[in-house]
Amino acid sequence: MAVTGAILVLFLLGHMAGNLKAFFGADAFNHYAEWLRTMGSPAVPYRVLLTVTEIVLVVAVVLHMWSAVSLARRAAQARPVKYAAKRKSQANGYATHTMRYGGVIILLFVIWHLLDMTFGAVNPKGFDAEPFDRLVAGFDPSRWWVTLFYVVAMIMVGLHLRHGLWSAFQTLGLAGGRSYGKLKATAALVSLVLVIGFLSVPVGVMIGVIK
Amino acid sequence: MNLTLKVWRQNGPSDEGRMVTYKVEDVSPDMSFLEMLDVLNERLILAGDDPIAFDHDCREGICGMCGMVINGVAHGEQRATTTCQLHMRHFADGAEITIEPWRAAPFPVVKDLVVDRSAFDRIIQAGGFISVPAGSAPDAHSVPVKKDDADAAFDAATCIGCGACVAACPNGSASLFTAAKITHLGLLPQGQPERDSRAKAMVEQMDLEGFGGCTNTGECTAVCPKGIPLDTIARMNADYLKASK
Amino acid sequence: MSDQTHGYKVGEPIRDTKAPEGPIEDRWDKRRFSAKLVNPANKRKINVIVVGTGLAGGSAAATLGELGYKVKSFCYQDTPRRAHSIAAQGGINAAKNYRGDGDSVYRLFYDTVKGGDFRARESNVYRLAQVSVNIIDQAVAQGVPFAREYGGLLDTRSFGGAQVSRTFYARGQTGQQLLLGAYSALERQIAAGTVEMHTRHEMLDLVISDGRARGVIVRDMVTGEIETHLADAVVLATGGYGNVFFLSTNAKGCNTTAIWRAHQRGAMFANPCYTQIHPTCIPVSGDYQSKLTLMSESLRNDGRVWVPVAKGDTRKAADIPEEERDYYLERIYPAFGNLVPRDIASRAAKNVCDEGRGVGPGGLGVYLDFADAIARLGRDAVEKKYGNLFEMYERITGENPYEQPMRIYPAVHYTMGGLWVDYDLQSTIPGLFVVGEANFSDHGANRLGASALMQGLADGYFVLPTTVGDYLAGATKFGDVDPEAVEQARDAVQQKIDKLLSVNGTRTADSYHRELGKLMWDYCGMERTEESLRKALERIPELREEFWNNVKVPGDPEGLNQALERAGRVADFFDLAELMCIDALHRTESCGGHFRAESQDADGEALRDDENFAYVAAWEWGEDGPTLHKEVLDYEYVKMTQRSYK
Ligand SMILES: Cc1cc2nc3c(=O)[nH]c(=O)nc-3n(C[C@H](O)[C@H](O)[C@H](O)COP(=O)(O)OP(=O)(O)OC[C@H]3O[C@@H](n4cnc5c(N)ncnc54)[C@H](O)[C@@H]3O)c2cc1C
Ligand code: HEM
Ligand code: HEM
Ligand code: SF4
Ligand code: F3S
Ligand code: FES
Fold it and tell me: Are B134 and B176 contained in the same domain?
């Protein structure tokens, strides 16, 4: 869980950095998109590294979900008889309520997102357009509901990560003793940076900073 | 005070079990929760009914024998309190109170609110000790222990083995209990030689018993009557990962 | 010879306690050297039963298992770690002299004999003091997190009137931490297969074959099955019987059943009347009260004890002006003030309450006031020192002790009496050993604070394993257990259970227990008189008769039946209560935890009668009343003196 989660987080950090290039204009962004595909060339053929990354990502997501499901199944086995009284969360219930349902929402988002940005299937500009154009078109103010969906999804991602990151530290045994509080803060900070970083792009498009 | 209790009644391990409603009148706010049940039981006995079975012994919050889920919260809503130390003044007159046993597959119900927690003993058997035959110990002052370490070890060592952490954990995990033990011994110099093997064996036993996995939701520490902190679980994981390498 | 008025006979005195001769400091070494050893290959074939998993039983079972014996261990809780020892707060004494403040084995020995009001056996107490040193080493090696100083060394404090600082502690949870140490050692042996653990099993009888203790009859409390377990020796470590008073600081399950059945099978019961009453407990708040909670004695260091001058004064504490308060301990004992020993503080509280000046519900309480301490030291300093105790008090009473004085009242806390044992901790039944609070040894008529934990662990880790080995060296010759003896014991158990379930009367066992407890508290409690004891001896048999004809125990013999468990224990408490009163009546002196109002000096202090009572009263059970056997106490090393705290 922690390992797959960590891979996903690393991807997100890179992805966010790349997205921010949108602020530097169409060329910078398209160039970046192109670079993604030509990474390592000429030593490595076109798109190989990107494909490898994609495979790693897919594997990570699958494993991540598989862990989530098996943890949930173990939990169900460990408590076959449920409580009659509605269990009141004593630890604010944040993690319990966010992680599993939040994760599913994120999955739905990613599917939509790939159809939108990568395959262009649900994008007004379609698959053949330049990435930057797809981006700008996707977040066109007229399609405010898409942007809204992104915003909601990003917040879900942030919440998932705020707990998920700290939880990963804990699972990897890093959070003992004095580092406990610091790591909790680090997790919150990284999540916040990611949310703001990601959101800046659609917001940028909406208010016309990116065009 | 007058109360309505909804209590889990189950005749034995093979019985299905059901919630049964009782009215209890004239409850004094100064009664402990268990004394309130005593009063109900006296009445049930005289009426020819089977009294409600529940575990208890010290009645002062230290033996860890008592424990029930009260209105959905292990040991009731008052923080850092065992069921025996919970007093009726924390309930409103006329309140309806739901009382259930710890729910976890590795804690099968014996009767009513009594569960079998011997899984905890088996976790200890797997390695929750320092091997030192009687009479072979060196002088107590031959190994100084840093006060901070001694204090932190003590914080973990205060676990009373009540099982509330398991009852509260959405995953039915015994991580907090196991981690408390591993942390207590792992922080002391005396505990070092067996530190890795201890963590590995205890965690594996915990999984074998059928407890769920920890996803760090922190419900356990919130209901723990001794406030065992969550970072003990990180320590357990660190020791376990190190031992599994 | 017989004494009809007291209803008991006097038998042969006990002459041999098996303590070796010679200088006291060499006796234990001598005994250890003379003890026969068991060949390791044979140990595996020798079975030992240990009943009880507190400090005494847990440490004994673990150590015997480690030595290679086949051990079976029993307790009534769901896990050995919950034995009542877990509740001990204050600390454990040991003559380590880590402070260099003049402590020594000899001084600990001396303090213990003197604290016991010269009613303990010198040889045993000396050995206890010697072994105390090893206990701390053992516990530390097991990982018991005793309090430490910044240098990393162990911290100690002074306790219970000792002039040296020899009490090791683990915050207010010393018993818990020591028990977890013993428990972990025990679990290690269970994992190793040398100890077979039987939790939720209650011992209901002892099997005696050919004059030797050879096994126990137990009830599986989950299935209700009656089981027989046979062995070459039986160790009882079943704790104290303070619950005969119903209300005490003991855990609810503490009982006398195991030692009482052994007594009925021939083990002598020594000094049953010696009971320790602790002065600082939270008072009773109503008829439903099920147990009493101890508040650490350390509170008396800063709290001032008082009651209103006037009888029946129901004003709030804050409304009673200074001149209408009676700081009675400071008034009567100007030298020691609020810090007089346990028995004196307890009795003084009872006296003012008997005068009608008690405070709180039922008038059974006195104030322990921190207003002066808060004014003098500041609230923060007081909170630092006693914060957790104040919190515990508030949790139970709902009153804030920073704003209004605490109410305290004495409560039964410890029983010095128990089965009689010799120097080897063997009872009068060969093969039956008794350790911990269940035996009578070491504390005389009064136990010093922090000495019970020491005794339990000394017995279990160090003394018993040696002496039981000596006995077991002959185990191969014990022969088979007589099946008739087993049958007879099983029948007795079964009959009692059937009887309890069949009465089907109109009162619960608890209500009888409550009534018995009240009677014992009133007539055989802090202060006893010939008149009160005779009243008790009249009333107890009546009440017992009524119990057996009118108790209502619901349910079946099969399965978990907590009402049945309780009824069985109450039945035994009735018998024990009677013996306690007989013992208290026969001992016309006052000593330690036994205060006979007739025997006091001009100042109202306990007056011992060394000429007539410097003996252990060991009682033999008989259908037609008990027989007294005296073990005369000779003091070779400590001079007998009268205590004074003025
Ligand atoms: C509140 C409190 C505080 C105390 N504080 C201190 C202190 O600070 N320092 C100190 O030195 N002493 C203290 N004491 C006294 C001390 O705790 C006890 O005397 C001591 O722990 C007794 O230990 P034990 O092993 O003899 O028996 P226990 O710990 O009482 O164990 C008895 C065992 O016997 C088992 N048992 C009993 N009956 C049966 C049966 N019929 N069948 C099967 N099993 C049975 C029980 O399951 C249990 O395992 C305190 C006592 C109390 C009540
Ligand atoms: C596909 C849908 C997803 C689901 C169903 C899902 C579900 C979960 C679940 C159930 C956990 C368990 C931890 C807990 O409950 O506390 C978890 C942890 C985590 N998730 Fe996800 N998640 C998903 C997507 C993601 C994504 C896209 C990322 C990051 C980009 C991510 C990062 C993490 C991290 C870092 C953890 C912490 C691991 C740990 O506890 O050790 N997850 N996730
Ligand atoms: C608002 C924030 C986001 C924006 C603007 C954005 C934009 C983009 C764009 C433009 C692409 C196409 C890149 C290309 O094909 O060259 C892309 C691909 C992708 N995005 Fe996002 N994204 C955002 C958030 C996310 C999040 C939160 C996730 C995961 C949880 C994610 C996962 C992916 C994945 C998996 C790809 C495919 C990468 C690949 O093909 O290798 N994105 N994104
Ligand atoms: S960790 Fe806390 S809740 Fe869990 S068993 Fe220990 S004391 Fe009870
Ligand atoms: S509640 Fe359960 S998920 Fe982990 S943090 Fe506690 S064990
Ligand atoms: S009864 Fe001992 S902790 Fe509650």
Answer: yes
